Structures are given as structure tokens and as C-alpha cells.
Amino acid sequence: MPKKLLITSKSILTHEIVERKIFFLRGKKVMMDRDLASLYGILTKNLNKAVNRNLDRFPEHFMFSLNDHEYQNLKFHFGTSSWGGSRKMPRAFTEHGILMLSSVLNSKRAVRVNIEIMNTFIKYREFMLTHQDLRLKLDELEKRYDSQFKVVFETLKELLEPPVNPNKRPIGFHA
User: CB-based contacts of 67: which residues, under 8 Å, 6+ apart?
Assistant: First the structure.
């Protein structure tokens, strides 16, 4: 799988750039409207206008507006200055909502960006499947060997466990 996708002759979009813009809200992987607009090379208000003209294409499991608590949490995460001036709560788009955006935004850049975003989501799913396979193999090994490796297995299981605080977004690309 290629690591980079050419967006324009002047800029390159990588998986790493997309990964940094994926957040976990309400138990879903989402991207914010302002981040998507930035990737598409349009203003956030223009992205939201296009969505508003096609609201029937965006049910709640495709897109939702943040509540005040989520918004404050994001402002804290990014620093208040970068989110200042917004009159409306930002929108979060799930993977399916981002796919639907490709039918609403008709530009070559939007198509290329959507392809790269979908490749990143696929990469993420593949990583999670590998992670689950590793967990199953670890359980199998634990059954096979006696208690002399108990400490090793417990340590490995701790490393595979998700973070304790689900409200705090972990650093990096995690589930």
C-alpha cells in the first residue's frame, strides 16, 4: 500500500496526517468538520453549507454536532485560541459520513482526499484485527505453559488493554 497520495502538485497527504485528525467521540472514530474542510481545501462554513443542503444524507450515525462538554474537551485538547470564534458547535463525521461527503462535494481534490481517508480507516481496522489476533495467540500460549510464565502473560495482557480513562483521548493512533 503506498504511503503517500498526491493531492495537488504542491501538497502531499499522508496516513500520518489523517491519523492525527481522527478522534474518538461517543465510541466512534470521527473527524471534525474543520479538519475535513482543511483537507478538502475549502472553508468549514462551505463544507457545512453543502451538508445542510443534503441533511437527509447524514443521519446521526454518519454525522453529529458536539455537545458542550465534548466541545470544551476539544478546546482544551487543542488550546482555546485555535477553536475561538465558532458560533456553532462543530460537527463530527463518522467513517460513513465522510464517505457520504464524497457525494456532496464534487471536486477532484475531495475525491482524492476521501480515498486517502478511507485508506487510513482501512489501515486502522487491519491494525485492530492484528491486535485481536495477538490477544488470541497470547491466551492460547498462556493455556499451554505453566505458572512460571504467569508474570510475563499478565504484563503482556496489561500492554494490550485499552487505556483506563475512556474520556481522555490517548496520544497516537489508538482504539
Answer: 89
